Amino acid sequence: MKKRQVQASVKDERLVKKRRDQMIKGAVTLFIQKGFHRTTTREIAKAAGFSIGTLYEYIRTKEDVLYLVCDSIYDQVRERLYEGLDTKKGTIESLKQGISDYFKVVDEMQDEVLVMYQEVKSLSKDALPYVLKKELEMVAMFEHVVTLCVENGELELSMEEVKMIAHNIFVQGQMWAFRRWTLQKMYSLEQYIQLQTDLLFQGIQGSAAAVEFQPDT
Amino acid sequence: MKKRQVQASVKDERLVKKRRDQMIKGAVTLFIQKGFHRTTTREIAKAAGFSIGTLYEYIRTKEDVLYLVCDSIYDQVRERLYEGLDTKKGTIESLKQGISDYFKVVDEMQDEVLVMYQEVKSLSKDALPYVLKKELEMVAMFEHVVTLCVENGELELSMEEVKMIAHNIFVQGQMWAFRRWTLQKMYSLEQYIQLQTDLLFQGIQGSAAAVEFQPDT
Amino acid sequence: MKKRQVQASVKDERLVKKRRDQMIKGAVTLFIQKGFHRTTTREIAKAAGFSIGTLYEYIRTKEDVLYLVCDSIYDQVRERLYEGLDTKKGTIESLKQGISDYFKVVDEMQDEVLVMYQEVKSLSKDALPYVLKKELEMVAMFEHVVTLCVENGELELSMEEVKMIAHNIFVQGQMWAFRRWTLQKMYSLEQYIQLQTDLLFQGIQGSAAAVEFQPDT
Amino acid sequence: MKKRQVQASVKDERLVKKRRDQMIKGAVTLFIQKGFHRTTTREIAKAAGFSIGTLYEYIRTKEDVLYLVCDSIYDQVRERLYEGLDTKKGTIESLKQGISDYFKVVDEMQDEVLVMYQEVKSLSKDALPYVLKKELEMVAMFEHVVTLCVENGELELSMEEVKMIAHNIFVQGQMWAFRRWTLQKMYSLEQYIQLQTDLLFQGIQGSAAAVEFQPDT
DNA sequence: AATGAATGAGGATTCATTCAT
DNA sequence: TATGAATGAATCCTCATTCAT
Predict the structure, then answer these.
(1) Minimal Cα–Cα distance from D20 to chain C, Å?
(2) Is DNA-binding among this UniProt entry's keywords (chains A, B, C, D) (predicted)?
(3) Strand nucleotide closest to residue C56 (CA to C1')
(4) Is the dihedral of CA A153, A157, A160, A165 positive or negative?
(5) Residue B209: its pLDDT value, please?
(6) What share of chain C is helix, strand, coil (3-state, %, to 5)?
(7) pLDDT at A211
(8) How far apart are CA C198 and CA C207, in angstroms?
């Protein structure tokens, strides 16, 4: 599936890219503040630094802006995720590192993640698949890292389990953003990473309690 | 914190309750289909079976409807959660049962959960706390059950861990609804319950394989 | 073919009729002054004496107004035409009378005829047939009167000729309106009626010259 | 009255002529399809084969395009009319020939005639007279031919009658275009010419029936 | 209590025209 | 001369809310 094309009247590709970046930047700020529906196209144009007429030289409909914004945020998150994720090693340690990095990215991009998270549903049936595809790609990155660990014999997991784990990691990252109203009151980012990682690896029964039992070995 | 009062012009409390129930029922259906913003008050009135004028006898603003809807859904979920959750026993078994029941409730009320999930953010700063409060109450229910297990010596967990676990369980339930576009393609509800429960209790390293290997160490 | 229904949100049929009459009246005046395209919906609402919101309670789109206007004008012309046209007699005299009456109606409703004449083409492919149908009905009225004359032996004409004549009469009526910028400078209405009637009955060769040949009279 | 000047920024007269011809050609096609108001200047520029910027080097306003188009169409029709019309002979035969030729021109240029017919009214008060002048010139051509017949003693008509006849001929030509939705369903062009010519010359009473009666006189 | 007609602020989008390159 | 990006006034239409009946 290729990138969904948002039609622009302006031909100069470089300009289109530039203007759309302005646009996205302005729009994200607004969407964070008031959400997609409560943001007007005029506000977007203004925030982007050009007139309403110009805005419409680079998009067809307001929804295009939303698509562009979501698309862009996903790209950013994914890119940063990709940098951090060492997809070669296949060791427990590198997996832990990957999770930690991902959570940190989410933390830094909280606002963006939140927007994307809350507004994707406003995308038309037409645009949605393109965005969901990207989400799955990110999940697949975790899947890959975990799979490597399995292949290396560091973990023993079925394919179903691997997939489930990848989804869980992904959602727990987002969770840090969309439940920040409560989680970030209780935990620091480091604590959150530590706790989630421990729980993920040890499970409820394998945590502290299990440790205590281990002296016997 | 008491229930937020939505003002009605009509005095007869019984009637208010009745009309609001009609209203909520109609609105949920509409919100599921088109979301809050794309649903008009006229549509809500029609779906509820009365006129737009009458609608406004029972609410002050459109947002009131959203609040009422979210509130109602939370109440339903919570109530059903409460029925299932045996908050006395404090055994691993009853915790597993509780999780399973919760996931099943979410499965049955998928649409509602989704609406609530996606539209809460449209609530005003004014109404939001009341709804989030309810969410925390539900989390607290899991917290309580887990705590009992700890107190009974079935599990050994810190308070931070308990809280984290409760949030994880809660979110993993919702996840079944809001990620249904991918999860429900891969797993049946039973599988999902099984997998998540196993992972929760054993963690990645504690799953079947790891257990087998541990004797050797 | 039944009347094309223009949807109204308001149920009360009497009110719909009343408001639409106001609307049409205002719109005709505006269309006469500036044409359909240069008239805004707000102006129409204002001219009708109510708000833009109310306007849209009685129509779906701006084009509906145009349809309503054209429809109404046709109805008026047709009705007045029908009153005047003695469709029973079937004598040359009554035909002449009919033409004269028709031309007088056009003269009185010049502005309306002009509007209809110039704006029908702006109707959508959807609405156009309904309006053209009415035009044909009017032509058919003349056709009928002429046919009667033929049946009475007052005239001897083929069906093709009858149809052609009916169309000619109809267009010559309209012509008085749409070519008024020149015709009405040269002729009074009475002259116009006299000239057209004479030409119609006698033809070029049968006019003045023919008189000379009629020594018998 | 001289040709109304449409201002151009470009000086080179030859270029102006060339570009305007491109422009008119493109615009006519568009006006035929969607009418003047629904055609955008961008579309016109595109259809003409140059940019919007260039378009405005050769006109001042969108209305100028309409004027240019109407003017051009009139010129074409008039020119072709002029070729056909033998303005010297002054015989019934040459008049009939002229009418027939004119009707054929209209038939061939239907779309153009229609555009001109329907859109002239959109011209500003400023430009209108220039176009109407051309129309009168065409009418005058018929007037002239008929007058010659009168002078030659082939016809006996008053000046009023001559003018009326000229207008009738002119309108009956246009009629073939603007009432084509019905006329062209009923008649072939040849039939139409035949019928109209006969009616014009003989009148209702002078057709077949009258002929029969004439022996008696 | 119920109704639904009326309101008008507000929002998305278009398009003629300009002007710097 | 030619280009096409930028502009923003103008326009159609929607919809939450009110209020007289």
Answers:
(1) 26
(2) yes
(3) F13
(4) negative
(5) 41
(6) 75, 0, 25
(7) 39
(8) 7
**Integer CA distances (angstroms), B138 to A193, B105, B173, C62, in order:** 23, 13, 12, 52
Q: Which residue has the tokens 């833009």?
A: C52
End-to-end CA distance of chain C: 50
Q: What's the distance, Cα to Cα, between the start and end of chain B in Å? A: 53
Please state, in angstroms and rounded to a whole number, the distance separating the CA atoms of residues C175 and C179: 5
Place of tokens 């729980």: A199
Tens of pLDDT, residues D160-185: 999 999 999 999 999 999 999 999 99
What are the structure tokens assigned to C1, written together? Answer: 């073919």
Separation of CA A127 from chain center? 17
Q: Rounded to whole angstroms, how far apart are CA atoms B115 and B93?
A: 31
Distance in angstroms, CA of A53 to C1' of F9? Answer: 11
Q: Which of B175, B16, B14 is nearest to B103 (CA)?
A: B175
Report the alpha-carbon distance of residue C104 to residue B64 in Å, rounded.
62
Q: Which residues are within 8 A (CB) of C136 and not within 5 positions of it... i.e. 6 or more apart?
A: D182
User: Up-side HSE of residue B79: CA atoms within 13 Å toward CB?
Assistant: 7
Phi/psi class of residue C90: alpha, beta or left (left: φ > 0; alpha: ψ in -120 to 50)? Answer: left
Side-chain half-sphere CA neighbours of C114 within 13 A: 20
Chain A partners (3+ C-beta pairs within 8 A): B
Q: For the purposes of burial, counting CB atoms within 10 Å of the CB of A140, is it exposed (0-12), middle (13-18) or buried (19 or more)?
A: middle
Closest to B84 (Cα-Cα) out of B142, B136, B140: B142
DSSP B152: T
Cβ D61 to strand E below 7 Å? yes
Question: D122, exposed or middle or buried, with CB in 10 Å at 0-12, 13-18, 19+?
Answer: buried
Asked if A205 is an interface residue toward chain B (Cβ–Cβ < 8 A), one would say: yes
Q: What tens digit of pLDDT does each residue of C181-203 get? A: 999 999 999 999 999 999 999 98
Contact yes or no, C with D (3+ CB pairs under 8 Å): yes
Residues ≥6 apart with Cβ < 8 Å to B149: B90, B91, B92, B95, B155
Asked whether the whole model's pTM tops 0.90, one would answer yes
Q: What is the pLDDT of residues C123-172, one digit of tens each?
A: 999 999 999 999 999 999 999 999 999 999 999 999 999 999 999 999 99
Both tokens assigned to C16? 């719909």
Give me Rg for the CA atoms of chain D: 20
Give how far A121 is from chain B: nearest CA, Å.
8
Classify residue B14 by burial, with Cβ atoms within 10 Å: 0-12, 13-18, 19+: exposed
Q: What is the pLDDT of residues A104-148, one digit of tens each?
A: 999 999 999 999 989 999 999 999 999 999 999 999 999 999 999
Residue linked to tokens 């109304």: D4
CA/C1' separation A44–E12 (Å) = 12
Report pLDDT digits (tens) over D45-75: 999 999 999 999 999 999 999 999 999 999 9
C127 in helix, strand or coil? coil
Measuring CA to CA, which residue among B149, C162, A31, D97 is closest to residue A40?
A31
- In the predicted model, what is the mean pLDDT of residues A73-102? 87
